[in-house]
Every structure is written in structure tokens, then in C-alpha cells.
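Standup notes
- DV: blocked on the single-chain target, sequence here:
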Amino acid sequence: MEIIETPKEMQRISTLLQASGKTIGFVPTMGYLHEGHEKLLEAARKENEIVVLSIFVNPLQFGPNEDLDRYPRDEAHDRKVALKHKVDYLFFPHAEAMYPGPSSIELTVKRRADVLCGRSRQGHFDGVVTVLSKLFNLCRPSKTYFGLKDAQQVAVVDALIEDFNFPVELVPVPTVREADGLAKSSRNVYLSEQERKEAPFIYQSLLHGKELALQGASREQVVSEVQAFIEERTHGRIDYIEFLSYPDLQQLDKPKGQMILATAVFFEKARLIDNILIDM
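- DV (later): unblocked, structure below
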């Protein structure tokens, strides 16, 4: 595994790989790798000749009330995970290298960003598409891998690739779950013993909502039933429940096509998100 720290060197190598006809699987992350990231690396390794993993805590994704300096980091652990999954190139740039000065051009996400988690994180997805535009140009991937646990991010990346004609295939990877259905997350360690027992009901509520939707329930009925399911079985405080088209993330009077049923629930020390895709 080769570790690369400068954008210029990463672009030089990826250009040579691309010219030689190699397929490049790219997994962009902010580090502190967990099992969900490992599934992305497994998929990239299986489908491509070369695997590039980037680790970059992107300051543009953090709002004024979000502490960039407190974001968890474990460089030694991340390198071990990369080696375990036979990553060919680990791109590990510093912020000064990625953003050497004030930008003359800014990207703004006009759609798909003002619902779900994006509603309370103004500007977050602007930072996501900005850094991904740079990373796609530096790493020249054939395919890029994102987890469906953050399905809104997948939808925004889909729009970025489509709108700007990036020659890369987006590969969404299913959410990694515990045996009881709880979506794996680094935040799960902050749950109390009782909260950990209650948390799997979040996913069960979504499955219940999916069943109702497939039986012909309206959008309002599905949302109401999911809300009641969570409130009756957990002490969590619901942030949102949304039933939207996917990947457009629009409200439809009558659910049709591919839909996403998503929720976020606050527990005492953790905010858990989950979603399920439904083909209507």
C-alpha cells in the first residue's frame, strides 16, 4: 500500500493508472473507519483492479455549531484497516493541501439537500459536493462507493455525478446492521443499556411502514404509523420521519416508483438515523 499526501501526486498516479486501462474503485471517507467502511472497501476490492481510499476530514462539511476539532480520528487504526482490505493507494491529504487559499468558485446544492438531515445542516452538502468534485478529479475513479445508511448523501452524490458529467459509476452499498437490525454506527456506543434494547425498534418501525406502503397506505398514514411505533416502544425523541421519492427526495401525494422511508431519533447522548428503500 502506498500512502499519498499531496493532491498533485495523487492525480499523477491516477492519471497513469487510467491511461493504462486500470479500473479504479474509490472509497472517500473522513476516517475513523468502522465496519460500514469495510463493506465499501470489500465491494471496491471485488470489482476493481485498483482500490483508492481517501481519508480527509473536510472542514467545509462542518457548520458553525459543529466542532471540527472534536471529530474522532485514529490514523493508526485506519491504516490497519486499509492494509487488511488490500487498499493500493491511501490518499491522506492535509486541509492546507486541499484548500491552499480562498476559493474563487463555490458549489451550492439546490435540490435534495433541504430535507432529512440536510434541513438542520445548512451548507453541509455544499461542502460534500465541493470536496468530492476535487477528489473525483484527483483520483479519477471508475466506480465510487457510498453506504446507503446515509441515503441522502448518496442522492446528492448521484446528482453531482449526473449534473457535472463525472465519468464515474456510483455504487450504493446496503446498510450494515447488527443481528437485531440496528444500523451499525460509531454513535451506538453512546447508548445506555436500556436505549440499546430500544434502538432496534427504529428499523422495525421502518419495516412496518414499508409493509403498510406496499398495502396501499397513503404517505401521511405511513408516517403516522411509524411515529406511533417508535413512540410506543422507545424513549427516544423523533427528529423527523420522511417518506419521499428517491433519489429526487420530493414529497409525492401518492407514493410511486422508488421511495425512501427515513427517520432520525434522539436518545440521551446519541442521534440515530436509519432508512429503507421501497419500490412501489
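- Follow-up: The longest strand covers residues 237-245.
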